[in-house]
Amino acid sequence: MDLDTLRANAQALVAPGKGILAADESGGTIKKRFDAIKVESTEENRRAYRELLFSTPGISDHVSGVILFDETIRQSDRDGTPFPKLLADQGIIPGIKVDTGAKPLAGADGETVTEGLDGLRERLEEYHALGARFAKWRATYTITDEIPSRYCYEANAHALARYAALCQEAGIVPIVEPEVLMEGSHSIERASDVTAEAQAALFQELHRNRVLFEGVLLKPNMVLSGYDAKSQAADEEVAQRTIRCFRWTVPAAVPGIVFLSGGQTDEQATSRLNEMNMLGPHPWELSFSYGRALQAPVLKVWKGDAANVAAAQAAFTHRARMNGAARDGSYTAAMEKAA
Ligand code: 13P
User: Fold this and answer.
1) Residue 188: is its pLDDT beyond 70?
2) Among 1, 179, 293, 299, fewest CB within 10 Å belongs to which?
3) Is residue 17's pLDDT more than 70?
4) H or E element at residue 202
């Protein structure tokens, strides 16, 4: 294994002012996004939409890497340039989602374990040949009064660690994503406890599976009140609790933490990342790996109409620039209006 390359790619993904675009929606998820704007989810529409994102002028100023889906990594722009090459030519690192989804965990009502380990070594070899230099695997944890169980933490941590070790063997930087879901009426304190348990279990398994921390990135949820909680914590409290939780659980050798947006509004996701970076310096880079928070405004403007491509790209550039500013705590709400 080439640790220098892994480390260099992990560091490039969290370079100052930049973050990751998660564009790895599975067939079912992209259909949901397209349904909302009344666009049919055909292969050509999915390709055209991803081309819009990846060919946005100047986007590499704020996007260090893009996570692709299996279909997308094999697609090309209208001139026949494969998407991984289109990205790499701009200095953007292509990545790939490799898990095959969260499935019911046997004997554990309401809990899931993420699958995709069978045949993973061979798939990673193919993805590397297609240009992927980093990957993503997402585990999910639902909060109620009774769950997550210890069994769920351990089953998901084990799968994440097996995946991460296989990635590093293949020269691919693993992004490990233990996502504690916002659904529920739990307090922010409970979200913090569950996030810490999930991460502590994960880093213990990563260590046991001989994963090199310098060549891995963590993609976590922020510590938030449940959607249906009586009171919602302010951005400043979210930032303080998230940082405190991570200082307890994430080794300083990990180069970066790249947050998911997970149902926050675009501006909340930016503002909270900004608050956290204002509390720095931290042992790790704090960055973004947003799906919805980068793409929601783009989809709304695009609406499947080629005539809207330039305006949709401008919306994407704006969101990427706002998040780029949040990387060093220089974002302000006034910058939204100025656009
Ligand atoms: P969201 O930012 O929409 O949560 O998506 C990020 C992601 O890749 C989830 O796995």
Assistant:
1) yes
2) 1
3) yes
4) helix 188-208
**Taking the domains of the chain in order of start, what are their residue ranges?**
3-338
Q: Residue 177: CB within 6 Å of ligand 1?
A: yes
Class level of CATH domain 3-338: alpha beta
The answer to whether 63 and 258 have CB atoms below 8 angstroms apart is no
Query: If you average pLDDT over every residue of the chain, what do you get?
Result: 98
291 CB under 6 A from ligand 1? yes
Active site residues: 177, 219
- pLDDT (tens digit, 9 = 90+) per residue, 258-315? 999 998 999 999 999 999 999 999 999 999 999 999 999 999 999 999 999 999 999 9
DSSP state letters, 242-290: HHHHHHHHS-TTS-EEEE--TT--HHHHHHHHHHHHHT---SSEEEEEE
Nearest atom of ligand 1 to the alpha carbon of 294: 2
The first and second tokens of residue 204, run together, are: 């213990």
The amino acid at 39:
V
